[in-house]
Design a protein that fits this description.
The structure holds two protein chains of two kinds. Chain A is 1% helix and 48% strand. By secondary structure, chain A is mainly β. In chain A, a hairpin with a 5-residue loop joins β8 and β9. Chain B has no helices and twelve strands. Chain B is elongated, with a radius of gyration of 20 Å. By secondary structure, chain B is an all-beta fold. In chain B, the strands form four sheets. A four-stranded antiparallel sheet of chain B has the order 3-11-5-6, with no helix packed on it. In chain B, strands 4, 7, 10 and 12 form a four-stranded antiparallel sheet that branches. In chain B, strands 1-2 form a two-stranded antiparallel ribbon. The chains are: A mainly beta, B mainly beta.
Chain lengths: 694, 147
């Protein structure tokens, strides 16, 4: 009798600790690219590109600037060796601020340490070799954006302010913390164990005496991370804690004599805990001694030969709010520690990652606009024929204070839908009335719209939510229905099949049996097209409905063929065909210049009179181009010139190829002889006028 | 206010990327691979006939999943599973019968259930659409239980 047991997936994440009796069955021996969910393992989300910085070759750092509501992005150009600062808004738009450093030749691939304190962003060149380290820089957004050197008079005795070269910076309460720099006293510059604190009310002001010494000289501090009410100071093989909130309460203690951080970017604080990757693997600390997180991971465990290798220098740590996990990433490999579940997973990326940071969403404030837009009106211009869509145009009134760089955004969503998207932008040039036009939207569709002023990707107050339905009512308008293009006929002279000849241009007169070809320029699949047609005697009279034998099919090339199915009744009549979009009632748009076509007569027809009375008939026919692919081409002979009736007596026996040329000879008896061209399309024959023998 | 998103920056090109469900890594699909731990239904010293793996997968779009079964650390069976699209995201249960060939002179003469102490299952799928392993059961027949 069979039985059943569960094989757990995703229950406990990756655990490679070996040993039959110590390994929980409800764990995973290997896991790549999954997201742990309660009771299940799911394919992880892909890393979708959101922005590309033109002219740059690598991303060095991503750091949210909370007070400004934007995210700072630092990029590097390997050719120019320029390190440049960009600001990214919640809408993923990026704007270049300026160059932070231009690195001399020989300086290794740069790493950047950033801290946002107050409304400023401080950038330090994380370079271990002091001689190659660049000056620490400060980005100040107001009153005008500037990137300047961080200077301080740290010389004893005072000798005036000089550029500071921190190796790293962090924010602790309202202080800017910088490490790796002593003072401009000769021989005192490169002090890796020094951790300096700014004044609490000015992050760019430093006092010579406000510093800590962490451990031994020449053993450099690699990074500082605030967690809880303390500041973790980590070297490669030991850690310290700076506690306190002001000068009287500040102090430093050794927190861990064995474990430090593997490199300057391999730590992140989540809540009260600082997660870091030491030389012995991942650990976590809440201020005192750290705890090993590597035990369940067991990177050096027996049988784990396929574990991805780590390169500490290339590694960085970040917190992923979507996964609720700490990400330790080493190029294209990442180990994720899922904080609440206390479990590990591994991810393999298609591209090597160098840094990560949080993108603030809908934060507002800071660098957001101080102007605002009020919705005015929205119209739907008639789109150009064949454009592929239809635009909307909205007006708004701009009020408030402009600082420069604002844009007026137009947002829209289908009335029957729920997803808003930004469909148009226009620079704001001044207060008062403004207009913005969207790109191409779907034809003949109802939309609701909204407008707002944005600056640095941040929307105006009351218009920062992802859905414009949550914006102030004064920003919204509509619904409005997008337009439909006007249909028009195309000149058929350039496109008409060469073997067809036009009998009468303009309003068409039918003669005998032939095809009426209409040309119209229209998007072949964008619009449903309906048609109707009418006819009247030549020269005037009442129009009556006329239904051709074949339905109109404009096809992909915008051409249609109507067949005169009743040659007697339709002789000498005018025909007009009109086309309209299916949802428009009324007369629609006339397709002008419907042309009546029939095959041309054979170009030449000769009869050689032989003995006895034997005639050899040949006819030459010019090459043809067909409207449709199918068809049969034949030359027929008749002894009576008769446009209508008079069946072919003896068609030339072999259908002639479409390349044209001369028919084969036929032996005939006496009497008058005529030839004409017959073209068969499907089951319909089209005949040219008869040509008598010459 | 929406939750912040972790934005990644690449070293080989100036591209910023963020996690997004239903997408791959730029143009590359995501290779999902999960290997369970080893289970011994009759105990570490016991023996069982492994009948089938009952797999519950949650998906909506068309997916291809490869199931590999290991008995006593040896790969005994590789089975591709084609999951057709469903109108909504929901679970689908599949039963994969396990068998190994009986070879006589390199010619397959029959098939029998794999027999051993330990079973391990690995699932692999290449794609971008959401896919989750909701559950996995092993159907077996005890042969010898460890006392």
């Amino acid at each position: 009798m069979s039985a059943r047991v569960p094989i757990p997936f995703g229950g406990s994440g990756l655990v490679t600790g070996t040993g039959v009796y110590t390994t929980e069955p409800a764990t995973l021996a290997d896991v790549r690219n999954i997201a742990l969910r309660p009771g299940r393992a799911a394919r992880r989300p892909g890393l979708a590109p959101k922005a590309t910085l033109a002219g740059e070759t690598a991303i060095l750092g991503v750091h949210p600037v909370r007070s400004l509501g934007v995210t700072a992005v630092v990029a590097f150009n390997a050719s120019t060796r320029a390190v440049r600062l960009y600001l990214m808004g919640p809408d993923l738009s990026t704007r270049l601020v300026g160059t932070v450093w231009t690195l001399p030749a020989g300086v290794p691939f740069p790493r950047v340490s950033m801290a946002d304190v107050w409304d400023r962003l401080i950038l330090a060149h994380d370079e271990p070799i002091y001689a190659q380290r660049q000056v620490t820089r400060v980005f100040t957004p107001t009153p005008t954006e500037t990137i300047t050197d961080l200077t301080a008079d740290l010389h004893v005795p005072s000798a005036g302010a000089a550029p500071v070269r921190f190796r790293g910076v962090a924010r602790y309460y309202t202080y800017l913390v910088g490490w790796g720099y002593g003072s401009e006293n000769v021989g005192d510059e490169n002090r890796g164990e020094i951790v300096r604190f700014s004044l609490p009310d000015d992050p760019t002001a430093f006092v010579p005496e406000h510093y800590f010494i962490a451990g031994q000289r020449a053993d450099p501090v690699l990074g500082c991370w605030p967690h809880g009410d303390a500041l973790a100071v980590r070297k490669a093989t030991e850690s310290y804690t700076i506690f306190g909130t002001d000068r009287p309460s500040f102090g430093i203690l050794q927190a861990d004599a064995l474990f430090g951080v593997g490199s300057s970017r391999l730590a992140v604080t989540v809540g009260q805990r600082n997660y870091f990757w030491s030389l012995d693997g991942p650990r976590v600390s809440e201020g005192g001694a750290s705890t090993d997180l590597a035990l369940p991971l067991d990177l050096s465990g027996y049988g784990l030969s396929t574990a991805p290798a780590v390169s500490l220098e290339a590694g960085f740590a970040a917190y992923d709010p979507g996964e609720r996990a700490v990400v330790f990433c080493f190029g294209a490999i990442a180990y994720l520690w899922h904080v609440e579940q206390a479990q590990w997973t591994i991810r393999e990326y298609a591209h090597r990652q160098h840094t990560a940071g949080l993108l603030l969403r809908d934060g507002g404030g800071g660098l957001g606009p101080t102007a605002f837009a009020t919705f005015g009106s929205v119209t739907a211009p008639t789109p150009a024929l064949g454009a592929g869509g239809a635009p909307l145009q909205a007006t708004a009134t701009i009020d408030g204070v402009l600082v420069g760089g604002e844009v007026l955004e137009l947002w829209a969503r289908p009335t029957a839908g729920s997803a808003w998207s930004r469909v148009g932008t226009a620079p704001v040039t001044g207060l008062g009335s403004a207009t913005v036009t969207s790109g191409l939207l779907a034809y003949g569709t109802s939309y609701v719209v909204a407008v707002r002023v944005a600056l640095n990707g941040i929307g105006q107050s009351g218009a920062t939510a992802a859905s414009a339905d949550d914006w102030s009512p004064s920003t919204r308008g509509g619904p409005v229905i997008t337009g439909l293009p006007a249909l028009a006929a195309r000149s058929q002279g350039a496109l008409g099949p060469s073997y067809f000849t036009s009998i009468i241009a303009g309003t068409t007169v039918l003669q005998g049996q032939g095809a009426m070809v209409f040309f119209a320029t229209m998007p072949p699949t964008d619009l449903p097209i309906a048609y109707d047609s009418r006819t009247r005697p030549v020269g005037g009279g009442a129009w009556t409905d006329w239904e051709p034998a074949l339905p109109v099919d404009f096809g992909a090339n915008g051409r249609a063929i109507l067949v005169n199915a009743d040659p007697v009744a339709n002789l000498q009549r005018e025909v007009e065909v009109r086309a309209r979009t299916a949802d428009v009632t009324g007369t629609g748009v006339q397709l002008a210049a419907g042309q009546f076509f029939q095959p041309r007569q054979p170009a030449a027809y000769g009869v050689a009179i032989g003995t006895p009375t034997v005639h050899t008939i040949t006819a030459s026919v010019e090459p043809v181009v067909l409207v449709r692919d199918e068809g049969e081409f034949q030359v027929a002979r008749n002894s009576t010139a008769n446009i209508l009736g008079g069946a072919d007596i003896s068609p030339f026996p072999v259908p002639i190829a479409f390349e044209g040329g001369t028919t084969t000879a036929q032996t005939v008896g006496g009497g008058a002889h005529f030839v004409r061209v017959r073209i068969r399309l499907g089951s319909i024959d089209f005949f040219s006028p008869w040509r008598p023998a010459t | 206010m929406s939750a912040p998103v972790l934005l990644f920056g690449e070293i080989d090109r100036a591209v910023l990327a963020a996690p997004e469900v239903g997408r791959g890594d730029d143009a590359a699909p995501v290779i999902m691979r999960v290997r369970s731990n080893r289970v011994a239904p009759d105990g570490p010293g016991g023996e069982a006939l492994f009948e089938a793996v009952i797999l519950t997968l949650r998906h909506q779009a068309t997916q291809t999943v490869t199931l590999r079964a290991y008995v006593d650390d040896a790969l005994v069976q590789t089975t591709p599973l084609a999951l057709p699209a469903q109108p909504v995201l929901r679970s689908r249960t599949l039963e994969v019968r396990l068998s190994v060939p009986v070879l006589v002179g390199a010619v397959e003469r029959g098939r029998v259930r794999p027999r051993g102490a330990w079973l391990q299952v690995e699932l692999e799928s290449v794609g971008t659409e959401p896919l989750a392993v909701d559950g996995c059961d092993l159907e077996f027949t005890p042969v010898r239980r460890r006392a």
